[in-house]
Amino acid sequence: MSREISPPPAKRRKISAHPSPAQAQPLRPSTPPLRIEDPHTMRVFSWNINGIAPFLQKPITTFFQPSRSVKAPDSKAVIPPASLRGFLQRHGWPAVLFLQETKIASADTKTQDAVESAVNMRLPEETSSAARGPMYETHFTLPNDPHNARGLRGSGKVYGVCSIIRSDLFSTYKAHVRTVDWDREGRVSVVEFQSTNKKLALFNIYAVNGTNNPYRDPSTGAVRGTRHDRKLEFHRLLMEECLKLEDEGWDILLAGDMNVAPDTRDGYPRLRTFPQQHVLNRADFKSKFLGEKKQTSGRVFDGVDIWRVTHGNERRYTYYPRSREWGSSCDRVDYVIVGKRTWEDGLVTVCGILDSEAERGPSDHVPIWVDIHLRKEEKMQRPD
Question: Is 305 assigned to a binding site?
Fold first, then answer.
């Protein structure tokens, strides 16, 4: 069975000129985020890990060299990049970690339990109560579509997202995790936080990758077009979900692998434009989620690409295929989008991309992060 892959493919067809030196910028790893001092700021990480297996066993030497291990802040201990607990610890115990492409079968409760154990297993330096980090809950949205999410040899180990949430948030913000009834491929998890004056919905997204492979009716197996068609349908259904929540007074934040690079600044050495359907998919996504209303009729989710609006024309990327030399072919397909109202209210303060080989770990994507400031009255200064 043909399986879809994260874009772009290992080999790209040449369709445009190489960016000039003035356009291209040298790859420089982003500075790790500063520690959070404000208790009202919620830090959210998102990472397409391309399979959970390396995080549940000892580091594989083919993935890592000893020099690539990361020292924990203020510690002599070395944390292997494939340690989920180590990731949370060295990044200051964030509120939320969204994982995409976990590749766990829905019936595989043993692996799901192993993920929760890996997230909460104390590190060697957590020897005293003062050094101990918080506990986390893991919530999975895994595929149950027998016709479109079979995986290799029908294993069901394909797609899937996991939302890892710090346990204290369930009481502080009445956290609730759910999925949506129109997704059976394990692509959408919704984490809802509520306080006395705020309702915030965070979407963990692993968007459909468009291909010419058939898309089948999840119930009957009858062919209903291609994966390109399903991608466009996915855009529409996700947009409608966002609009419905906005009408109910929710602030919306989408984070994850969108499987679309928005424009020429987001592809190196060039933006993917072949086959032509990828151009149409990109235009559809931007019209429905990034405010380019001229591409469609009717109401759309008028969103803001946080990283792009706060970093101008800077070139940074999140997808680094392992089949290529680091930085020779890359795209920004993982990012954060918030509703226009949420942006104007000043709830999102800063975001970043951890673009280094060490942070990529065993994946082919690097993590991204965003801070959400939950005090509406303390607005941040916006760039012009």
Answer: no
Residues of the chain with confidence (pLDDT) below 70: 1-32, 58-81, 293-297, 375-384
- Which phi and psi (to 5°) does residue 136 adopt? -130, 155
Q: Which residues are identified as catalytic?
A: 206, 257, 365
Classify domain 41-373 at the CATH topology level: Deoxyribonuclease I; Chain A (3.60.10)
212 known member of a binding site: no
> Which residues, including other chains, have CB under 8 Å from residue 119's CB and lie 6 or more apart?
84, 85, 88, 136, 138, 164
How many CA atoms within 13 Å lie on the side-chain side of 155?
A: 10
**101 known ligand binder:** yes
> Residue 54: CA atoms inside 13 Å, Cβ hemisphere, count?
18
196-227 pLDDT, tens digit each: 888 999 999 999 999 999 999 999 999 999 99
DSSP string, 345-356: TT-EEEEEE--S
Element holding 339 (H helix, E strand)? strand 334-339
